[in-house]
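Thread: Newbie trying to understand structure tokens

Hi all, I'm a second-year student working on a class project, and my supervisor (Dr. K.) asked me to get a predicted structure for one chain before our next meeting. I've only ever worked with sequences, so writing a 3D structure as a token string is new to me. If someone could post the tokens and maybe explain what I'm looking at, I'd be very grateful. Here's the chain:
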Amino acid sequence: MKKLIIPIILFLLLVLEGVAIELLPFNLIPIHYLIVPHWVFVFLVLVNLFFDTSETFFSIIFAVIFGLLIDIVYTEFLGIYMFAYPLSIYVISLLKNIFQANFYITVLLSTIGIIIVETLILFIYTFIGAIEISNHHFLIDRLLPTVLANILFLLIIYPLMAKRLYRWQMEQLGNF
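---
Reply by user tm_fold:
Sure, no problem. This is what the structure looks like when written as tokens:
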């Protein structure tokens, strides 16, 4: 049962991403801002930092699977999130080897990861001709609100999940 906990949490976050913005009051956020909840990705960053070891790649595998699910459920094109999420998680796993995982590093790496994901998604959508957006509008109207909203989500789940993921990692290592 313990092996299913992380995928179940990821699946619940996948479902909640779809209704998250709808639950916010309209007058809270200006209409021209576009906030994209990347809750699955933020949780994958936590999994990468506190659950994965140097020999395991659960976060990258889950990034491929749940990236594909996000593509199927929420987007018109298959493979964009399936490409962006694992690549960003891989970059974070490389940076994880440089830094010691703590709260500030988690916020920093999550911010870097969200910026990488959003930039990759913009690049791919622009490359295939699905959207046209100026750099200014992307930075001010999409990237900044998305990063801030997802960091707010990280601030909520970090105290709940960081130690728990580390404990699950220790339990998993004890099984070998």
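A couple of things are worth pointing out once you decode it. The chain has six helices and no strands. The chain has one domain: 2-25+36-167. Feel free to ask follow-ups in this thread.
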